[in-house]
C-alpha cells in the first residue's frame, strides 16, 4: 500500500522539523518526506492539519481476558479507544497487573487482530498470584521470590518490556523483594522497571524516594507511573524536584502523568484502606461509582462499605487531586503523557478515550499552558526513547509509518465521567504500520497493529 499525505504541517519532535510538506508511505515505512507529485493508492489532503508521529501510550491497561474467553472472539475495546485518540502503540501490563502468560496473550491478540501495536510489562502482583501468594499484605518468602524470578525470566524471554510494580496494591512487598526481581532484567537487553508508588499524598515523597533508591541500587531504568495521583496533593513541586535531582545524580528515573485530577481503581483495593480520606483531606462523597448497582452515584459511608465488602472489584473514580498540580506535572520537562486507561465491562475513566486529545485541545489550544511541539514530544519521542524504539515516535525517512493527522483547531476530548468511551473530535486520520486505520475520524481497519516483542527476532 502506498499513501501520499499532501500539504500538512509535518512535525517531528525529535529533530524539531516543522514544515508544510508531503509524506510518502510505502510498505509500512515513511519512504519520503518532501513535496511530491507521485500517485498513490491513497492520497490524503492534510491542508490545515498537523501530521505527526502516532502517539505512544507508555502506561495503559490492556483488555482483560480469562481462560474461559480463550476460544471466544477477543474484543480489544481498550485498544480501539487507543486508536480513536491517535495512539498507535500501547504499553499494557502496568501497576503490577498483567496477563499471566504474555506469550499466550500475544498469540491470542495476533489471531484476533489488533487495532494498534502492543507491548506489555510483566506485573509483579500477577507474579505473586501465580506463585499462590494471594495476600497483598504479607511479604514474599525466599521460595516465592525464586519462583517469581523464574516466571519473570520466561516472560522476558517471551518479549515483555520489563516488570511493573503496583506497590500501593501490594503493601506487603518489601524493597528487597522488588530489587531481587528487578535484578532478573540484567540478563536481558533494554528492559525497564515501572512502578505505581507505595504511598500517595503526604507520603508521596517518601514513596518516590523508595523508587529512586531501587533504581540506583539496581542500576536499572525506572518509570514512575502517573505522578499526578502520587503528588497532586500539595507536594508536586517537591516530587518533581526530587526526580530532577536524582536524574542529575545519574539515576535513570522518568515519570508519566495523565491529565485528570481524579484517579480510578477498584474499590476493594488497599488504596481505599482506612485512613485514605484523612490522607486526601477528602471524604466518601469524592468517590464516584463507575459501574454496577450504584453506577453514577457518589458514595456515602453505606455505599462505600457495601461495595468494599460485597463488590470489591467495582471500578470507582476518586476526585481527590489538585488540577493545577496535575498541570504542573504535565508541563514539566521530561514528564510523559500517558493515559492509565482501563476498561472493565465497558466502563471506566474517560482518560482511556480522552487523554491525548485533552492535552492538545484544552492545554495547548484553549489554555495555552503547553507548547504544541513540547506536548507532542511528551506523547511520541520521549516514550519511544524510554522504550528503546528506534523506528517509532518519529517522522523520519525509514521509520515505521505510524502517523496521526489531526485538526489543531478542532481536536478535543469528548469522553466524560458519564460517557467514558466517547471518541474525541479532530483526530482525522491514523495510519498504523503503513495502512489506514482511521479515516475521516472513523475506524476503518482494526487489524493493522503488531505485537512488539523485546529482544525478539
Ligand atoms: Zn497505577
Automatic annotation (TrEMBL):
The keyword Hydrolase applies. GO terms for molecular function: hydrolase activity, acting on carbon-nitrogen (but not peptide) bonds, in linear amides. Residues 44-101, 325-436 form the Amidohydrolase domain. SUPFAM superfamilies: Composite domain of metallo-dependent hydrolases (SSF51338), Metallo-dependent hydrolases (SSF51556). Pfam families: Amidohydro_3 (PF07969). The keyword Cytoplasm does not apply. Keywords: Hydrolase. It comes from the Bacteria. InterPro entries: Amidohydro_3, D-aminoacylase_insert_dom_sf, Metal-dep_hydrolase_composite, Metal_Hydrolase, Metallo-dep_Hydrolases_sf. Coiled coil: none annotated. Transmembrane segments: none annotated. This is Amidohydrolase.
Amino acid at each position: 500500500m502506498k499513501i501520499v499525505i499532501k500539504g500538512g504541517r509535518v512535525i517531528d519532535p525529535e529533530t524539531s522539523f516543522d514544515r508544510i510538506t508531503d509524506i510518502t508511505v510505502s510498505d509500512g515505512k515513511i519512504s519520503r518526506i518532501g513535496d511530491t507529485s507521485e500517485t498513490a493508492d491513497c492520497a490524503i489532503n492534510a491542508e490545515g492539519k498537523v501530521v505527526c508521529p502516532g502517539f505512544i501510550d507508555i502506561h495503559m491497561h490492556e483488555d482483560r481476558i480469562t481462560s474461559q474467553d480463550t476460544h471466544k472472539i477477543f474484543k480489544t475495546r481498550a485498544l480501539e479507544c487507543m486508536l480513536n485518540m491517535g495512539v498507535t502503540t500501547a504499553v499494557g501490563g502496568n501497576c503490577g497487573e498483567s496477563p499471566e502468560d504474555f506469550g499466550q496473550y500475544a498469540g491470542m491478540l495476533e489471531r484476533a487482530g489488533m487495532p494498534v501495536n502492543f507491548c506489555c510489562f510483566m506485573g509483579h502482583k500477577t507474579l505473586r498470584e501465580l506463585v499462590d501468594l494471594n495476600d497483598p499484605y504479607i511479604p514474599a518468602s525466599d521460595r516465592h521470590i525464586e519462583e517469581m524470578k523464574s516466571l519473570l525470566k520466561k516472560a522476558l524471554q517471551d518479549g515483555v518490556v520489563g516488570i511493573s510494580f503496583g506497590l500501593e496494591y501490594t503493601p506487603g512487598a518489601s524493597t528487597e523483594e522488588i530489587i531481587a526481581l528487578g535484578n532478573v532484567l540484567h540478563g536481558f537487553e533494554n528492559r525497564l522497571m515501572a512502578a505505581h508508588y507505595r504511598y500517595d499524598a503526604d507520603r508521596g515523597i517518601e514513596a518516590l524516594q523508595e523508587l529512586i533508591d531501587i533504581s540506583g541500587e539496581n542500576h536499572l531504568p525506572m518509570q514512575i507511573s502517573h505522578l499526578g495521583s502520587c503528588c497532586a496533593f500539595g507536594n508536586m513541586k517537591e516530587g518533581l524536584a526530587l526526580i530532577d535531582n536524582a536524574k542529575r545524580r545519574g539515576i535513570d528515573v522518568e515519570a508519566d502523568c495523565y491529565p485528570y485530577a481524579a484517579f480510578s481503581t477498584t474499590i476493594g483495593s488497599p488504596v481505599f484502606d482506612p485512613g485514605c480520606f484523612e490522607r486526601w483531606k477528602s471524604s466518601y462523597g469524592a468517590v464516584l461509582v463507575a459501574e454496577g448497582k450504584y453506577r453514577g452515584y457518589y458514595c456515602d459511608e453505606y455505599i462505600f462499605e457495601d461495595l468494599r465488602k460485597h463488590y470489591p472489584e467495582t471500578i470507582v473514580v476518586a476526585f481527590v487531586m489538585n488540577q493545577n498540580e496535575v498541570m504542573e506535572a504535565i508541563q514539566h520537562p521530561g514528564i510523559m503523557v500517558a493515559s492509565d486507561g482501563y476498561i472493565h465491562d465497558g466502563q471506566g475513566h474517560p482518560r482511556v478515550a480522552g487523554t491525548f486529545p485533552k492535552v492538545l485541545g484544552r492545554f495547548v489550544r484553549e489554555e495555552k499552558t503547553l507548547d504544541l511541539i513540547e506536548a507532542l514530544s511528551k506523547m511520541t519521542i520521549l516514550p519511544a526513547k524510554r522504550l528503546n524504539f528506534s523506528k517509532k515516535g518519529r517522522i523520519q525517512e525509514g521509520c515505521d509509518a505510524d502517523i496521526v493527522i489531526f485538526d489543531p483547531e478542532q481536536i478535543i476530548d469528548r469522553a466524560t465521567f458519564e460517557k467514558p468511551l466517547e471518541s474525541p473530535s479532530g483526530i482525522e486520520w491514523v495510519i498504523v504500520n503503513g495502512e489506514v486505520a482511521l479515516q475521516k475520524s472513523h475506524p476503518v481497519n482494526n487489524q493493522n497493529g503488531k505485537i512488539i516483542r523485546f529482544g525478539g527476532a
